[in-house]
Amino acid sequence: MNAPLVSVIVPMYKTEPFIEECAVSLTKQTLRDIEIIFVNDGSPDQSGRIAEQFAAEDTRIRVIHKENGGLSSARNAGIKAARGRYIGFADGDDYVAETMFERLYEEAEKNRLDIAGCGYYKETPSKERTYMPPSLPPGRVFTAAEMTALLTRAHEHRFIWYVWRYIYRREALQGLLFHEDIRFAEDSPFNLAAFRQASRVKVIDEGLYVYRENPQSLTETPFKPHLDDELQKQYEAKMAFYEANGLTDACRDDIDTYLCKHQIPMLIANACAAPKPSHQITAHIGRILTYDMVKTAVRSTPCRHKQLLAGERVVLGLCKMRLPLLLHAFFERKTKEKGSAEGA
């Protein structure tokens, strides 16, 4: 049996309300010579059974059932089973345009690409869509040397986010897998390595993937008890990559600015959302300020950095002065203002 042109890997965990629409969008692909690998990551609902029903009707579909190990573990199981010339991804609660994999495959073959990518749509529960263009300039081929230069601003340009908007030539991945100990924002460490290994990359300005904003996230607690550990593990994986590739100095400003703009505020906001007494929240913020990655980023990033907005500069300034009580008050005020605006 000839290898399929593209293997599409679909992890599933609690995706029962959405997996049918995802599966239909994949079985209707205009590129017929694909394989679809559903990975049931120990989901307690009927996701696995629904995927098996599709597999019974379409020989291109395979279903892998495994114990729950997280998104990275599920994707790795799919990568190891994939036989396609290229590998793509879709999340089980999203869906894709019928032409997605034909368009990306055509671009990859025509331009001898290791990675081909596209734009995507964010879709609300009411089906309102917002187009998110590709994070790299579309329409041109980037060489390995150009990609190495771009990696020094990878967080600024955001092209390492979201593996599902790309296809990857399987041979070019050279055995690359996801970090299974990272369970938050798993895509960026994987993409750092994938883009580093790629010889030729191109993206097209077409919205071919639909990222569905999960309505359940509005009712779930905003506090993530393991976020501190997860972000530190992600940071350590990225720094290990930079060191192994001689990019530490070149990428220092990019990752420090990203921490100050996104992840440090995320950590503090998460601490403020904890169901704990106020003094314990302030103490948690104080601990955040002692993390090595936080201390390095805060020390290295000027408050007037061009990428920082006004509120982000205030947060950075309070971090520099090590004032957890004022940081707590600042984020509490922001939360109240947001609640008032939503209730207006």
TrEMBL record:
Record key words, sorted: Glycosyltransferase, Transferase
Molecular functions (GO terms): glycosyltransferase activity
Signal peptide extent: none
Top-level taxon: Bacteria
Keyword DNA repair: no
Entries under InterPro entries matching the protein: Glyco_trans_2-like, Nucleotide-diphossugar_trans
A Pfam family of this chain: Glycos_transf_2
CDD domains: Glyco_tranf_GTA_type (cd00761)
Gene3D superfamilies hit by this protein: Spore Coat Polysaccharide Biosynthesis Protein SpsA, Chain A
Bilayer-spanning residue ranges: none
Domain Glycosyltransferase 2-like, chain residue ranges per copy: 7-133
Family: Belongs to the glycosyltransferase 2 family.
Protein's recorded name: Glycosyltransferase
Organism whose genome encodes this protein: Bacillus siamensis
